[in-house]
Amino acid sequence: MKGQQHISEGPTKTSASKIVVVGAGRAGEAILDLLCKDARFQPLAIDIDYSRVRAMREAGIAAEQASGSDAAQIIPILKGAAAVVCAAPPAVTAPLAHFAAEIGCHYVDMCEDLSAVEKVVAEAGESEFCFASGCGLAPGLVTLLVDTMIKEAPDGADITAFVGVLPAERTNRLGYGNLWGIDGLMAEYVNPCLAIENGEIVTGPPLQNLEQIQIGSESFEAFSTSGSLGDLAQYYHGKVQGLSFKTLRYPGHLDYIRFLLDDLKLSKRLYMFRNLLLNGLPKIERDRVIIHIIDRNPTRPQHQTRLFDAIALENGKYRSAVSSVAAQHVCAVIDIIVHGLAPCRGVLHHSDLTMDTLGRSRYGHTLLTSG
Please, what are the domains in the chain? Predict the structure, then answer.
């Protein structure tokens, strides 16, 4: 990020909107990377880990060490901010949303945990500011694509979204690596799954409903995971026949995960499961994102597939596909709510973020015209 050129279009930096990004890990860094190139925004990185703060400062980004869940530390920082972005673990989302409501600024997060999202919705209440939870890839872009397919489908839509964030080349027996965020992965693998079956909302355990699926010339396994379409399931209850989400992995992945969680009983010692994944999985930047959505409506079945690859950088490294996609969506939402590109107050639901709305932002337009 060092030495980046700012986008000249728009206001000067002195009139730029202050955007506080809490969490300077992979997700936060990707968001900051985009915001720092845009003269309309003045980003400030916040992290509890000073090594990350130092890395941000060395890259020429304003950064401070603070906890996003500590009122005494974060409220003074939020003063004068147009928006705050939570790119930190789910435990930070609810308190940070509360502080945003208290101080009076827009709020955006990338949370996949349904219970945490419910707390954010409660904080939004009747606020004149916008609260957008679950932005990024899935939920986020995938939610928009599914919502669009539902709106364009005849009655009786029966949709399954298959999404995979995978190493570009298979590695180890899991066929997986530390690609984005271990906390988000754990939430997907251990929390209940919300879906629609026969027009009714159902809740089921994760890591079920295994199936093999062919996309192009490759075979993958797919199984139910939590978090990605929960907002849409509640919105479309009684309006569609079916709606479900499945994660794509290289064949054999689920069996090893079940061995860890069930046979070794790490589901009852999640701190051990987290440490095992965090310390055992290789960190991988050269990844790919696969989005495959199927509507089995007998009247007019349809499907779409989008593929995103990691971006090769000049220094020989890669910017991961998942970080690029997630950050583009988050920055598009920031752009939309801060610059009034769509009417918004209180909760911004994914069903409110149409293709047209997202396309009004330069970030959303880039995202929708690629892949």
Answer: 13-136+324-368 (3.40.50.720), 141-315 (3.30.360.10)
